[in-house]
Structure formats: structure tokens, C-alpha cells
Amino acid sequence: MTFDSYHWRKATLGTPELERARALVSTTHDRASFELLLRSNDIAAVGIALDQYQHGEATSRWGTANPFADHSAEVAARAREILREPPSPASHHTHAGANHASALNALTNLIEPDDAELVAQALARASTADLRCAATIAAGRAFEKMSDPNGQLIVALERMVFDDILTPGERVDALNSLARASSALVTDILLRVLRLPDVKLQAHAAVHLLDREQGAHRAAVEAAAQAWPADPPYPANEVFDALEEAESEGSDH
Asked: pTM for the whole thing?
């Protein structure tokens, strides 16, 4: 089965040449055709190239090399250019912000600490769940590479965590990406999440708190867990297991 694009499958490209390149990239991974798409001024063509790159990255986990790996630096540079532009409007062939979604996906494994502000700005302008998901994943990857987490990005994710208009899944994803940042501010946010009414969010925050600062927040987690219902949602079981293990280790000393 051939792959075309995550976000631009219904799009028609501006010229027959670009459509031929699209077909060749999809069927034969032709490098020259990939370059033509990536370097064009057609927003959909560029988006398809970025999606093709990220698809190659995603499938490489199964032992197949990304056919476009040699273009990593150019892909990252093009993705950053797109993120400095406004999100693309919705149309009959794609959703709003598809250009940003493609750019953020392509940056997933290429992101650098200096990209944090671009990701934060994309999050602030995101109007669809797909775009928020792509930005949230990119944010988590950026935090993994930072010794001093970007405050703007922390604030953007914090807003998502406490936004009860978003779906529970989006809020959990934002929380889990936020927890990748090593910061006292993030620890404070996780502690505040323990006071939210959503038990699933509480449980995710509790898992992260138990992993931070050598169990310094165990008492706060225990207090929150005592108020959970009899059959709390995942990952509450992991919280109880960790608390039990800590209790056992404490009794051994």
C-alpha cells in the first residue's frame, strides 16, 4: 500500500509536473521528485513532502530506512519557515492549519530547543484537534532537549491542561508533554492538577509527581488518591503500585 499524505490527500496540486512528482514520491520514493515538492511554492506540495518525510520516520521503527533521511536539514528548515507563516485556512480538501500540522509532524524527530517559541505560537493559534495534537507532541520532544525549559511553551501547555472545553484526551496529552520539562514551575502545575475534579488527569499528574524529585510529593499524591472512586481510571493502578512499592521499601529500612 502506498502512502500519499496525512493532511493533503484530497488536494489537487498546481501543475501537472507537481502531480507527477507526487505520484513518483508515493510509489518509488524518487528523490528528485521529493525535492521538487519540498522546494515548490505550492502549499499542498510542500505539505505532502513533509508528510512523506515524517511517514518515512514513523515506518523506520520497523527496520526500513527513511528514504528521505538525507534531506533532514532541508525538511527542518522548510518546516520552520512554514511555522512562521499563518495557519492555512480550511478548504474543501483539507482542514484549517494543515500546513502547520505537516510542519510540526515533520519536526517531531528534528526539533531543537530553539524551536520552542515556534511550537508555542502554533499551539496558541491552533484551531483543530489534529493541530493541537501535532503541536503537543512537538512540545514534549522539545522539552526533552532543554536543560532550561521555555516558559512560553510551558504556559501554552498549561492553558490546555486547565481548559475544560478541550477533550479529556487532549488535556492528558498536554499534561504528559508538559511533564517532560524539568522545572519547579511544572512541578507546581502538576500539584495543582491533583486538585482538579477529573480523576484521570489527577492520576496522570500523580504518576509524574512520583517520578520527580525522589518521591518528595508522595504525601500529596497519597492524599489525592484516597479520594478517588473504587474503580479509578488508568493510570491510577500505576499510582497505587508505586505507592505500595514506596511503602514496602520504607518498611525495609
From this structure: 0.91
